[in-house]
User: Fold HEAT repeat protein from Enhygromyxa salina.
Amino acid sequence: MISIDAHGGPALPEDRVQAIVRRALARAPSFTSAERDLRSRSKRGLLAATFEYRELPDASDHGRDLLVRLSVEAPEQLAAQLGPEGLDVTVLLERDAGQADLSSDLHLATERLAAILQARTDLARGADRAVTRLLESSDPDALILTLEWVRDHPDHAEAREAANRAVELIEHDDERVALLAIEALGQIGGPEHVVVLLDRIQLADTRQANSAYDALANLGGPEAEGFLQFAARNEDEPRRRAAAERALHRVADSDMIQASSRAPRPAGGKRSQPPADPGLAPAGESSRTDAQRSRPSPTWPPSRGHR
Assistant:
């Protein structure tokens, strides 16, 4: 630990904070205290870390929430798999007014940080059954992290096996988890998931509806196309109608490509073309919008320990 920063707010003695962090990391198999290696004068495998925490006023209940950040240097062999976020994790612990105990709350928040660091490391390393295990977690942050990984790695075997669990998580109480479950299902599912997706989404929720339209375009199939046709005709809100229309164009384009790829080739090597229908106008081109949302990272004031 190269720095500890409380940003000028309520603070614990540094040795107490060090003990809290060591205890939390003891629960993460991939991370151990550096003291053992330092006593042997060996620095091989040591990773620099910074730890920051601060209390934030909560206007809703006049309490003070606790924002905690742990940033650990990414191991060289995992840097590419971890991506730009690396092993930099922030947790916001919401506290009711009059129930703030900095020592115990810091311990709780740091345990959550360590669990997320371990989860991110397991996914980067491709640990066996990591996706399945993490998607059973009761921690929304662990679910969010794993669903993002599934969404971004749709060709991975463990990601494809997570489709049924993604369906279940569409009804999660945390809106962030539910939206990511829809996005992930759109990447790893198929036409067979259209009906179960439509059974679980809340169409009155604009964010869920727009995410579902995008997912349906990816899932494809006649059920997806039929629902999008209905939505494009009946949506009253202009932006939702536009989202349904864009998704419908994508499904139609995908069906045309698949039909073209299955069409038999004549002896000359060129595909035969169906006769033109003078009553049909060519469909206009449409561009796909990015439906993936990410949570904004908290902004930290300048600190000597923040790299």
